[in-house]
Known about the structure:
Elements: H1 2-10, H2 18-26, H3 28-39, E1 42-43, H4 56-65, E2 68-71, E3 76-79, H5 82-120, E4 128-132, H6 134-147, E5 151-156, H7 163-178, E6 182-188, H8 195-206, E7 210-214, E8 221-224, E9 228-232, E10 238-242, H9 245-261, E11 263-264, H10 270-289, H11 294-301, H12 305-319, H13 324-334
Parallel strand pairs: 5-6, 6-7
Antiparallel strand pairs: 1-3, 2-3, 4-10, 5-8, 7-11, 8-9, 9-10
Amino acid sequence: MRVLRFLDMMHGMSIEGGSERRALLAGPAGELYREIIAAGALAGDDPRFGQDHPSFPLLAMLIDLGLVREDDRAGAWVAVDPAAVQAGVVAPMGRRVVELLDESAAWADTFGSLSQTFRRTPVGDSPINEIRGLSSINHFLEAAVDDAEHELLTAQPAGARRAVILEQAVDRDLRALERGVAMRTLYQHTARRSRATRDHVERILERGAKVRTLDEFFNRLIVVDRRLAVIPGGSPDVALAIHDLSLVSYLADIFDRSWERAREYDERGGSSESDIAADMRQLTVRMLTEGHSDPASAKRVGVSTRTYASYVAALKDEYGVETRFQLGYAMGSRDPESAPERAD
Length: 344
């Protein structure tokens, strides 16, 4: 009679909570299962069939899972091989996982479509939208590059880029190249001295990208399919997304003109290296004759202030002088074109 009452209570009962059931099966319910195996069977009048017994929920779960069943011939309850039960428990979970993955992918596609529209469409009537916060800027750039279908133009000034930034960018760039997107990237000459930048450039060159370097300073710029341009805003944590096609075309033309003056990154040979060294020397001379401060000059050359100071020191040695005043006079005397212009 106790077993009948137990079965009546079990009718329609299913203990939910997959992780909780698994934890019980790995713990006290598993111990009870092992006890039943060791005993060979569980008698129908066992006190654990009583609703008030502390082991009642554990026994109910074992029966619900199918790990314990009634043996009519023995008149008792026996353990069932877990291998025979596993498929019936795990397979439905696998089906639910597949359904959830499919649904999550559908949600991602829907959000992606809306995000693409957001990036490609000016907000309101303004052809220029402001993006604030470095994380927001990076997320926007990541998505914008992933949207590229035909061409990417990127201008990266200020010399060598940090390894962590390059590591974040390389996967994004390689994805674009694998889609057949044409990519041209412009650096300053000083980026050639960075091992991290060289490694990054070699990886994208292998996939078909084109890279050149230029002696003079230029502003950061990204142009996507000549329909979207991203430039710096008024502070380091602000960027401007430009959708006006005329303005984007103008910025792309500036990039193309700089590209034509730049040198191929993968050029090899002594003449190329000496030409680049000459470019760097001439730019340093120009910074001196134009009267820029050392920090401003270093930024335009694409090096640290300390490295820029070493360039100036090398020029002093070259001209055999000790002060910057003497250097300016010597440069003006030997090379009039290097002398600063004077107002008439």
